[in-house]
Amino acid sequence: MQETILSPESGAGSTADDTTIEVSIWRGGDTGDYQTFTVPMRASQTVLDVVTHVQRHLDPTLSYRFACRVGVCGSCAMTVNGRPRWTCRTHVSKVVENGRLEIGPLANLPVIKDLATDMNRFFEKWQDAKGTFVPSMTRHDPVEPISPASPERRAADAAIECINCGVCFAACDTVRWNEDYMGPAALNRAWTLVNDVRDAGNAERIFAVAQGGGCHACHTHQSCEQHCPVALNPTASIAGLKRKTMQAYIRGDV
Prior knowledge:
This protein has ten helices and eight strands. Strand 4 (77-80) and strand 5 (83-86) form a beta hairpin. The longest helix is centred in the last third of the chain and has 18 residues, at 234-251. 33% of the residues lie in helices and 15% in strands. The protein starts with a strand and ends with a helix. Helix 7 (184-194) packs antiparallel against helix 8 (202-209) and helix 7 (184-194) crosses helix 10 (234-251). It has helices spanning 47-58, 92-95, 120-128, 151-157, 167-171, 173-177, 184-194, 202-209, 223-227, 234-251; strands at 4-5, 20-28, 32-40, 77-80, 83-86, 100-104, 111-113, 116-117.
């Protein structure tokens, strides 16, 4: 059952027009329903602005996450009209459809409440993929010069800007089908470390990503690349891991 709550600015009995937006927002946990609010349309308005208006003026019990508001932290990611996005960088004028928006939590993650999801599963996949830097030197050793033009550094640079927002994880069909799959972000992180010549953990990392939920579970749909807010291509990183794990298999290392 949908409930309509009118904004104080809109007046009793009004409906969405060119000055307002009808916004359906997910309420509850994994089981719940959408609740509809009428929100005023503003110039240069973002989806996060809309959610904030609802929480501050219409229903203070609405739960959601945000921090920086300028596209740095990634914590405001939600599902907007069926697509995972950073809501602070998504202007309403670009996504509104017939004066309406539908805003839900990220897919493929348990819902804590309303628009806030439990990210534990996402970060546990990073641990599964051995996504932690393992130093090969101590602080007492001289700093090792790394050429920005080296093939390894260029491969790492192409994938290193991930900020853990979870958009690719929410967009991935394989994550939806296979609960063991590590996911695009975790495997993308593994790829950056595989190409970091200072790292000493690659033997264990290659073994980890070669397992059933690792890189070979990727179906190469490229949903991660299409949705990544910082234009990374985790599919390319995963393809690199597939090559590395196959080479390791031929050598008898995995």
